[in-house]
Amino acid sequence: MNKIYTVIRKEYLERVRSKSFVIATLLGPAIMSLFILMPMLLSDTGKDKERLVGVVDPSGQWLEPLNTMLSQQKRGNVKLQSVGQAGQDEEGRVSEMKEMILAESLHSGILIAGDFAESRDVTFYNQSVSAMVVRDEVLRPAMIQILRESRFTASAVPDSLFAYLVARPNWSSIVLSDEGEQEQDDNVSFAMAFVLIMIIYIMVIMYGNHTLTAVIEEKSTRMVEVLLASISPEDLMLGKILGIGLAGLTQFGIWTGAFYVLSQRGIEIGGFALDIGFLTPLILVSFIGFFVLGFFLYATMYAGIGAMCNTVQDSQQFHTTLAMGLVIPMMLLTMILRAPDSTLSVVLSLVPLFSPILMFMRVSVSNPPFWQVGLSWALMMVSIWFSARAAGKLFRMGILMHGTSPTWASLIRAIKA
């Protein structure tokens, strides 16, 4: 046991004292926050860019209301320009607008039917698929509102009745739990869930990769031959995994403490208030549980592969394949968010390689039955046991092997041996 502790202490101190650990601890949250803030910032930047939209309005009664509506909706980045002269025929004005769009003097253009109030016909002209954003997010809502107002005016509907009919509900969200009721900010809850999932994703891959490279480096420098003179391969592997895992938990502890301090000061980032209230005991325990189990599952596999490889380059084919176990769940997050309790979501979240991401997402956005969370942990533990046994075989056989680069076939033969 003392030998395992020595290896744990060496691996732990080697990492927490390194400059890379300090830099990652300080900059890690900022980098991960960019995954949420950067799309918002880029979206805001895009909105600031002025887009000139041509308008062909044969009846002459819709351009002014459309301008007014865009102003009311604070769509100052979209400007309207009437195309053609009042006495010019519709076909000529449309042709002129097309030429201006092709010449890029106009971003896009619309033709509003003269009998728009009855036919509801609007034709949108554009040169790029990206122009559909302006159509769907700006022009379409404005034209719907204009159509509604024109019909109410034609029917002599009083303004008070019109305001009454178009009123929209005011939504608020209340989370129900055994502790009582709590008001919820859906945007903040989703953002915090995504940040925690990104932490699991990045840290499991990063520290799993640390395990792989640590084994390969000691193997390539022949240091492992000295170590195996006083410790068994299984104990050496266990010590490395525990030491690297504790370094990851230390980093998470620092981030959690900093997050708690900032949340108490009411700091906001990108319009989101840092709220420690999101970290309920269930979410916090689930996060730690899925991080620890996910790390051990991937670290044991990475350690076994590292023992079979002579260089980091040799390990790339295996590293990429294992990383897909975390990449695929990240691609499925939208599906889980929309239907966290569907049969497909439940089944996928129980797959051990997917559970650290998908099951934790379900815990963060819904209330899955406790037996499902417990079953996912049990399946991960069983997978870790099988993975550790396979990794132990690879570690014993491969740690002193040098020569040809390993393949998947040789890896499977070594496990079966």
Give the overall shape, derived from the CA principal axes. Answer: elongated
Give the N-to-C terminal Cα separation.
28 Å
Name the beta content range: 5-15%
Give the fraction of residues assigned to helices: 55-70%
Q: Helix and strand string, N-terminal first?
A: HHEHEHEHEHHEEHHHEEHHHHHHH
Give a description of the structure.
This protein has helices spanning 2-16, 19-48, 63-72, 90-102, 116-119, 132-154, 159-165, 186-220, 223-227, 233-264, 281-308, 312-331, 333-338, 343-350, 355-365, 370-398, 408-416, and strands spanning 51-56, 78-82, 108-112, 122-126, 173-177, 180-184, 268-269, 272-273. It has 417 residues and is an alpha/beta fold. It has two domains: 2-41 and 186-416, no CATH class; 50-171, Periplasmic binding protein-like II (D-Maltodextrin-Binding Protein, domain 2, 3-Layer(aba) Sandwich). The strands form three sheets. The chain has a four-stranded mixed β-sheet, with helices on both faces. Strands 5-6 form a two-stranded antiparallel ribbon. The longest helix is centred in the middle third of the chain and has 35 residues, at 186-220. The radius of gyration is 30 Å and the shape is elongated. The mean pLDDT is 78.
